[in-house]
Amino acid sequence: MKNKQILLAARPLGAVSESNFSLVETGIPRAGDGEFVVRNHFLSLDPYMRGRMDEAKSYAASAAVGAVMVGTTVGEVIESKHPKFKAGDFVETRSGWQLYGISNGGGARRVDPAFVPLSAYLGAVGMPGVTAWIGLNEHGRPKPGETVVVSAASGAVGGTVGQLAKLKGCRVVGIAGGRAKCDYVFNQLGFDACVDYKAGNLDADLKAACDKGIDVYFDNVGGPVLDAVLGHMNAFSRIALCGLISGYDNADALTVHNFRSFLVNRINLRGFICSDHIELWKPALAELGQLVHDGKIKYRESIAEGLENAPAAFIGLLKGKNFGKQLVKLV
Amino acid sequence: MKNKQILLAARPLGAVSESNFSLVETGIPRAGDGEFVVRNHFLSLDPYMRGRMDEAKSYAASAAVGAVMVGTTVGEVIESKHPKFKAGDFVETRSGWQLYGISNGGGARRVDPAFVPLSAYLGAVGMPGVTAWIGLNEHGRPKPGETVVVSAASGAVGGTVGQLAKLKGCRVVGIAGGRAKCDYVFNQLGFDACVDYKAGNLDADLKAACDKGIDVYFDNVGGPVLDAVLGHMNAFSRIALCGLISGYDNADALTVHNFRSFLVNRINLRGFICSDHIELWKPALAELGQLVHDGKIKYRESIAEGLENAPAAFIGLLKGKNFGKQLVKLV
Questions:
Q1: Range of lowest pLDDT (A45-59, A250-264, B5-19, B141-155)
Q2: What range defines the domain where residue A96 resides?
Q3: Contacts A–B by Cβ distance under 8 A
Q4: For B257, phi and psi rounded to 5 degrees?
């Protein structure tokens, strides 16, 4: 029995490639006093990881070259010398990209796979769900009847945003890439409409889907999609900005041309990340857990099999090849 | 005795030219029941007027071709059949670009030229001052010791923003065009520093002037100046956006390249215009009037002589040729 780890081998120059990663084998860690060892079942792959691969100043420290790639996992405690976690507990930890992790309990969360599926704690009942909840409730603040638009609508964050907004009585329009994702968002997630940004008609399609304009835009992507949305924002509308995936490889792709809309429509734009609002995680997770348990929030997962396939899955995520929450199954 | 008026003769295609205006003579209006006639002493020229000349959707209706150009004046009531205004009263009205205006009292404000100079009611104790007050207090919300940056710093809005922020105990850095304006902002208005955006070294000069980064940016200009500022914003900083004068002739000039900063620094950007906050005018004007009266807020004026020179003065304003609040003296 060995541990496997994926390290950041080199920082990407532009697009991420598999050569930026390396796979190594090590021994399985042993718990010291106050620590526990977790066997990870699922690794979450998330767009924010792209930023950690760069050296540029961002909201979190860079990952170190040669270190295990940062990431959150769910798994089972297999050995514990920690007073609050015992063998057999299921936990979410910041183990990184590896089969076995060691934790002193910092940032660890005990989870209950009998309440919602274990993997959901990495999605709608985890960081992506909390991101959706905070951005919508704190920054978007939609009123019933208002029109809420969300990009990357079939993803872990976007899908949750839209379903939460529907529960608030909003008209909800998704933006996603390709017919299959749009059909899923409309038919399975229950959005009022979903616009395919790859269909080449984004501006007109948005206008048709948002005949009363847009009151809240939850943005995960930036770039040309944001520019198109800006042309349809209403007076006193709000933009919750939590991701710019269209420009993670190339900041030039984030150029905004229709900046005038911010003034003309007196838009309130708020950049945020979910860890800015630690005090909101508890109420957010309680609500999200219940909604997933009750089937009122649905989600879809793309599951890569085996740690060795994590780099390819992550590269696909950055290109929008995933369909729903991207996970790596480790057991 | 004749009235003179300047009409919007044609909408500009790009830059405004004198051919967009025409000067006509008409009779002096007579007050009907519930009306009064005002002889205007000063006409205010303001950047927002550029937007009114276009047909494009904006926050206010376009000015009509063939109608008197919109604008605010201060002057003396010379005839009144209005119960609340009498001959000899000094008033601010939305007379437009003309020597004599008629009013039913809507939007009119009685002013006292013995308290502060009459022209100040078009500047620091008028719409520009209120814009500064609202943007700083409602949207910028600086704390003592924070760094506040304001563009168009020698102008009617910018100069007031900076002096209000100094009174709050902030470090205040202006951005203005040319050495003379920067010297005035630093020496006369008491800013801690002023950066000359025409000197060709904006990014480095901003960095030197804001060694702790920027917590609040009050923007009147947009475009490359905004892009440079975005590179120095602190985490959780605020941008109050009330003008985009760099792009009023050409929206392409407003392209924002450094959009990533909004996410990385979790910036809160708020587009606003002062008329969105009618409830704040009374407290804002009371405070601003007292501060100007007490000499705690200073200002400078560029005064064009005669209505016929208003178009040239307005064109100069759009190019930054004014130095302080741009007025036209009508008597």
A1: A45-59
A2: 3-122+300-329
A3: 102
A4: -95, -35
